[in-house]
Amino acid sequence: MRLLLIILLLGLYPLHAQLIINEFHPTPSSGEPEWIELYNNSKDAYFADSLLLYDLLSSITVPSFIVQPFAYIILTKDTLALKESRFIDPSARLIQARIPTLNNSKDCIKIAYKDSIILDSIYYSLNNHKKGISLERYIAETKVFQNSIVYDSATCGYINSISPLDNDIVVKDCIQEGDSLTVILYNNSYHDISNVSVCFSIDSECTIKTVKDIKRLELLTVTLLLKDILYYSTGWNKITISLVNNYNDPRMYNDSMVYTSFKSDSSIFISFNEILYESDTTHQINEFIELYVQSEKPFSLDQYSISDYKDTYLFHDKNIYDTSVHYIVISADTINMELDTYSKHIPVSIQLQNSGRELVLKDPLQHILDKILYSPSMHNPRIINKKGKSLEKGNPFISSENSHTWTTSGSILGATPGKVNSTYISNDTIIENYSIKPQPYYPSKGALCFINIQTKVPGFITIQLFTKSKSYCSTIVNTLYVSGNIHIPWNGQTEYGILEPGAYIMLIQINHADNSYSENKLIPIIIGL
């Protein structure tokens, strides 16, 4: 009786109907079972009885089924789990079967009659495959399989996302190059398409650009200047890119994308301000990098980075900071750090070299904002144990590349993360008990200049000369002093000879003998002819 039924069914459903392997998922996400999609690529229904399914190591007999013309069959070990994991077209039929485990490197899938006549077979390799995405057949006439490009990562039970249609324009990618944005379109259709309009929108305001023709199965680029997009502003911008007047496209899901674009903001000043590259066990402050920020409006440092020749530390920080925030501490944690209210912490695990290395600060467009070649030689030479002591910059607005603007922290904690540096030098400090005479000073006349300093405690004194633009000129003195009135004579000579006439700045650094306090002063000096 069963044999008669099969014969009758075979009479109803001709053998020349073509059943092909259309899609499969060897690397599904957690909770989703592996599955194989078969497709009846003919105008006739197809009856499959005792169909065999193979891979390289094993085979199974698939339960009998009937598949209608141009319809899908999905084979999986757990139909309920698959339906809970993703949307499946109701017209597709699910069959629970103990399908072979699909290898995650390379394997084959074959479907055959019981007499070993092969209906279809594929061999695959996952070298360029992205986990969590299915592999789809391009067209029935070939055995080309590619990663699914649908937003849901697979087209289980409906038409493959990579297969051509009568009308299908794909927004494939978007690239920002300098001040322009380029969208890559792909005409995944069997014929040319004319007058395609692309909308670039921010906050629902659309800027439209139209292209005349896109050749069938070809790419086309559409470029627009970022400044021409309505509401495009400094910082991060979410730009929705979509096709308009494309109503005959059945794949509306590939007609749009959201691109996040960054525009540099010249109103934000940011620089290196303090570096602790070797922590100790006394105060137990982890290595950190402190940035100084001054902004006229709220700001974000998301996707900014600090790099050296080996590592890049990327900031994953979506916070928007108020203009009152000036210090950003980059470190694994803030244990034993007492951050002030105007400082914030961005958690990044950093490993700084104790021997020194160049650090480069970049914005998301890879524009260099600041750089510093830090070194142990930048520490105060009179401090023997430098472990656990940071390098501080005298003023955040002085060039970080000038090693003479950096010195050892004078804090009793060894560092001042998230606070004003202990060695901070005001831009306009002129103290009455610090003086230079005469002013202007004329070294060409053979007279001496006297630097007069009054101090109450003994320690070390360093006096350095800088140009008005903060470039290093010379070290005038670097010696131990006693308390009281100090008169230091100077003949105007430097390591590079006599100075050119003009305005200069003297940096006076005083480190008290017990290293408990550090003081810095700036005094202007005019050098005459």
What does this protein structure show overall?
With 529 residues, the protein is mainly β. It folds into four domains: 2-147, Immunoglobulin-like, CATH 2.60.40; 169-263, Immunoglobulin-like (Sandwich); 269-408, Lamin Tail domain (Immunoglobulin-like, Sandwich), CATH 2.60.40.1260; 434-527, Immunoglobulin-like (Sandwich), CATH 2.60.40. Helices cover 3% and strands 44% of the residues. The protein is built from two helices and 38 strands. It has helices at residues 2-12, 79-85, and strands spanning 19-25, 35-40, 46-48, 51-54, 59-62, 65-67, 72-76, 93-96, 106-112, 118-125, 135-137, 145-147, 169-177, 180-187, 193-202, 205-214, 219-225, 235-244, 256-263, 269-276, 288-294, 305-307, 312-314, 327-331, 343-347, 357-362, 368-374, 391-393, 406-408, 434-437, 449-455, 459-467, 472-481, 484-490, 493-494, 497-498, 502-512, 518-527. The strands form ten sheets. Strands 8-7-2-1-11-12 form a six-stranded mixed sheet, with no helix packed on it. Strands 25-24-21-20-28-29 form a six-stranded mixed sheet, with no helix packed on it. The relative contact order is 0.07.
- Strand sequence of the main sheet, in spatial order? 8-7-2-1-11-12
Number of helices: 2
Per CATH, what is the topology of the largest domain? Immunoglobulin-like
Percent of residues in helices = under 10%
| Unreliable spans | 1-17, 427-432
CATH level 1 class label of the largest domain? Mainly Beta
Roughly what fraction of the amino acids lie in strands? 35-45%
What is the 3D form?
A: elongated
Task: Name the structural class.
Answer: mainly beta
The CATH architecture category of the largest domain equals Sandwich
The tally of structural domains comes to 4
Q: Can you identify the CATH superfamily of the largest domain?
A: Lamin Tail domain
Query: How many β-strands, per DSSP?
Result: 38
Q: What Rg, in angstroms, do the CA atoms define?
A: 36 Å
Terminal residue distance: 121 Å
